């Protein structure tokens, strides 16, 4: 039996471009355009869309319309709308908009935590406890994203023991899902496989999501390594948009349509209509005003065929 025969036959993709993708763009995408875009994404078979962030407009001006976006989109059955919140106030705003999931963010390294959130990991955990108090009884799923899991742009390597320690503390708090984030694309497939093996062995029932950036061209390879370890949930951004404004050298996320194409070509069910997704991806350059890194929307699927050149058909 080959190793691949024991890998998951179905995965789930969380589309993060409306939040992670737009937060770093140079221009503001109008609210109505965001709403139309998210509505189009929700019709492609994606099961979870991170629509925005309830953060300070001063910190992330591109997402200053968070409440208008969430209340304006068409809520489709079977599609969960998740939002990022940085603090208790953000959580209260998100709850008022009837979101399905709240995503909290902290860093695995002290330096990135101070640069990004002005908090150490321990301070973030204290804030998470306060947010969990506010959301208790709401029925909203609470996920925590652990940034710099695979390396910090300031400190370098983050020890695996430190990552496991923080995951254990998150679970002890009552966090329901954990995302392991390669914030600046420092991960490699061997490292990803080791860590995923470790967390799944220790917490087999915990829904872990993997979040990769394609900074050094290894996003798809890292996703493949995580899948081979048994991971079934992945963050991805349409067109390969995204990047953390507080992480030097960060570039776009692993591209949603490229990730879907890879897995579907391997016979892994993503639940996503790739043709419909490519149609939405094709609208991105006009929406944001520049070309995007995604490859499949430009090259076409691997099943694409071309007519033979006339010169080759002559006897």
Task: Describe this protein's structure.
The chain is α/β, with parallel strands linked by helices and 315 residues long. It has a single domain (12-312), classed as TIM Barrel (Alpha-Beta Barrel), CATH 3.20.20. The protein is 40% helix and 14% strand. It contains 14 helices and eight strands. The chain has helices at residues 17-21, 31-42, 66-72, 88-96, 110-116, 121-135, 160-173, 189-202, 219-229, 256-265, 274-281, 284-288, 296-299, 310-313; strands at 12-15, 48-53, 80-84, 101-107, 141-147, 177-182, 208-212, 233-236. The protein has an eight-stranded parallel β-barrel, surrounded by eight helices. Strand 5, helix 7 (160-173) and strand 6 (177-182) form a beta-alpha-beta unit. The longest helix is centred in the middle third of the chain and has 15 residues, at 121-135. The radius of gyration is 19 Å and the shape is globular. It starts with 11 loop residues before the first strand and ends with a helix.
Instruction: Work out the radius of gyration.
Output: 19 Å
CATH architecture heading: Alpha-Beta Barrel
Our count of helices gives 14
* Overall body shape: globular
Question: Strand order within the widest sheet?
Answer: 1-2-3-4-5-6-7-8
Tell me what portion of residues adopts beta-strand conformation.
Answer: 5-15%
Largest sheet: 8 strands, parallel, barrel
Structural class: alpha/beta
Helix content: 25-40%
Low-confidence parts:
none
Mind telling me the CATH superfamily name? Aldolase class I
Distance between the termini: 48 Å
The CATH class label is Alpha Beta
Order of helices and strands: EHHEHEHEHHEHEHEHEHHHHH
Average pLDDT taken over every residue: 93
- As for the CATH topology, it is TIM Barrel
Number of domains: 1
Total E-strand runs: 8
Family: Belongs to the HMG-CoA lyase family.
Protein name: Hydroxymethylglutaryl-CoA lyase
GO molecular function: hydroxymethylglutaryl-CoA lyase activity; metal ion binding
Domain Pyruvate carboxyltransferase: 11-278
């Amino acid at each position: 039996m080959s190793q691949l025969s024991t890998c998951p036959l179905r995965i789930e993709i969380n589309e993060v471009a409306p939040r992670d993708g737009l937060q770093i763009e140079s221009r503001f995408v109008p609210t109505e355009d965001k709403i139309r875009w998210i509505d189009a994404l929700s019709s492609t078979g994606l099961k979870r869309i991170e629509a925005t962030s309830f953060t300070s407009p001063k910190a992330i001006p591109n997402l200053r319309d968070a409440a208008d976006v969430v209340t304006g989109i068409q809520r489709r059955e079977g599609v969960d709308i998740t939002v990022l919140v940085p603090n208790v106030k953000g959580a209260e705003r998100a709850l008022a908009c009837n979101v399905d999931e709240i995503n909290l963010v902290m860093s695995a390294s002290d330096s990135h935590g101070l640069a990004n959130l002005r908090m150490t990991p321990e301070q973030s955990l204290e804030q998470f406890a306060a947010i969990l108090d506010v959301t208790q009884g709401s029925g909203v799923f609470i996920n925590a994203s652990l940034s710099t899991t695979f390396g910090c742009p300031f400190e370098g390597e983050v020890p695996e023991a430190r990552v496991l320690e923080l995951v254990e503390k998150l679970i002890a708090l009552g966090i329901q899902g954990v995302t392991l984030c390669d914030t600046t694309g420092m991960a490699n497939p061997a490292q990803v496989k080791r860590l995923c093996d470790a967390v799944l062995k220790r917490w087999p029932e915990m829904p872990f999501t993997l979040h990769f950036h394609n900074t050094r061209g290894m996003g798809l390879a890292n996703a493949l390594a995580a899948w081979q370890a048994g991971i079934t949930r992945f963050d991805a951004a349409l067109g390969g948009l995204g990047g953390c404004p507080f992480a030097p050298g960060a570039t776009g996320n692993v591209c949603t349509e490229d990730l879907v194409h890879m897995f579907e070509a391997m016979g892994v069910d993503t639940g996503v209509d790739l043709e419909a997704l490519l149609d939405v991806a094709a609208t991105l350059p006009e929406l944001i005003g520049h070309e995007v890194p995604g490859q499949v929307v430009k090259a076409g699927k691997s099943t694409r065929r071309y007519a033979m050149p006339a010169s080759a058909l002559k006897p």
